[in-house]
Write a structure and sequence with these properties.
This protein is α+β, with helices and mostly antiparallel strands and 365 residues long. The chain contains 13 helices and 12 strands.
Length: 365
């Protein structure tokens, strides 16, 4: 990423208007106000106003976290003036941590020197003057250092001090703007990934990200950092693809309900057809003598339960001509002189081995 030119400015902040500072050296001080603002001398000239919001604050907070050294609070910007006047630049205080609040960016862990604390408690100094960088849109991109001052007119630094600021900015690797852009881009990518609106604050993004972390960690007994999110998403996609590949094609398969209904219809049609076959077999067998009337009910039951068995029985059963035709060719048969039985009855008795006399006697009773 190419290095982008940034501007440098200083601002004065009234210590007496900050809550909790009366009568003692404050541990938390507001450095830069929230929103769009300008210096009392009319600056900035390059942009309509300086801008500080939660996004820019996140950039400064991240830079403070990455610093190996503390931020210095000096007297009257002597850190810069010493380049010109050669005098020492004693510290009035130090801080490491920045915090974003609704009304601006704060240093929250200020450690004052004994001398500076005494001067603040005796109201010998009344203003803070942070020195910061900003881009061509007016967005504040970096914090260099802070000074105690009693001269609000110091909003506009002398030309030599501006030169010193430029020198100070080049001493450190020129990464402030680059890191600012990287952090802003990262925040935008997080908003996209978490489906947050463009104007979502850092707090909103952190809250949504924490929900995702909690969800990934839930029920696993592991830290969120041990969850491979990319691997998890890839696995989910593979499982979805596998399930899609095994889905039933409605054009090739029917539902269980439809299949069951078809089976019931087939069973009903089969039973109906089998009933007709049994009826035809029994009727024909009764007519040609393969079945006697007393066998009719048995034959029908056998045919319903086992059609093959009925067909096998009828295939081997002899036909009884006497039950299907008459020996007298339609004329009344002559009776037997001894038993009084006609020829057809005598033929049946002979077939089944019955005594004609006994049959005749039974018929007379």
């Amino acid at each position: 990423m190419p290095h982008l030119t940034h501007f440098i400015a200083a601002l004065t902040v009234d210590l007496s208007k900050q809550a909790g500072t009366e009568g003692k050296a404050p541990r938390a001080v507001k450095l830069i106000p929230a929103g769009s603002f300008r210096a009392r001398d009319g600056r900035p000239a390059e942009v309509p106003a300086w801008k500080m919001d939660s996004v820019q604050a996140a950039i400064l907070i991240a830079a403070a976290t990455d610093r190996r050294t503390r931020y210095v609070i000096d007297y009257e910007h002597q850190t810069l003036r010493s380049i010109e006047n050669g005098k020492p630049a004693p510290a009035a205080g130090w801080f490491r941590t920045l915090e974003w609040r609704d009304d601006g960016l704060y240093a929250i862990d200020v450690e004052w020197t004994t001398a500076a604390a005494a001067m603040l408690e005796s109201d010998e100094y009344g203003y803070l003057s942070p020195v910061f960088t900003y881009d061509k849109e007016g967005r504040i991109t970096g914090l260099l250092h802070v000074a105690l001052t009693n001269n609000p007119a110091l909003d506009e630094l002398p030309e030599l001090s501006v030169a010193a600021l430029s020198l100070l900015a080049t001493v450190s690797p020129p990464t402030i703007q680059e890191e600012s852009m990287d952090i802003a881009e990262l925040l935008e990518q997080l908003r996209w990934m978490l489906n947050l609106p463009v104007g979502a604050t850092v707090e909103d993004t952190k809250a949504q990200l924490q929900k995702l972390i909690d969800h990934l960690s839930a029920g696993q007994g592991t830290a969120a950092a041990s969850v491979d999110l990319l691997g998890l998403l890839t696995g989910q996609q593979q499982r979805i693809a596998a399930l899609s590949a095994t889905q039933v094609d409605p054009a090739r398969f029917v539902s269980v309900e439809t299949m069951r209904a078809l089976q019931e219809q087939v069973a009903a049609l089969t039973a109906q057809q089998q009933g007709r076959v049994v009826e035809d077999l029994v009727t024909v067998a009764l007519s040609d003598g393969r079945l006697l009337p007393v066998q009719e009910e048995w034959a029908r039951g056998l045919g319903k339960s086992n059609l093959d068995a009925l067909q096998s029985y009828l295939a081997s059963a002899p036909k009884i001509a006497a039950l299907s035709t008459t020996q007298t060719q339609g004329k009344p048969p002559a009776a037997d002189s001894e038993t009084g039985l006609d020829a057809d009855t005598l033929a049946v008795c002979s077939m089944f081995g019955n005594d004609p006399a006994a049959v005749a006697a039974a018929m007379k009773e």
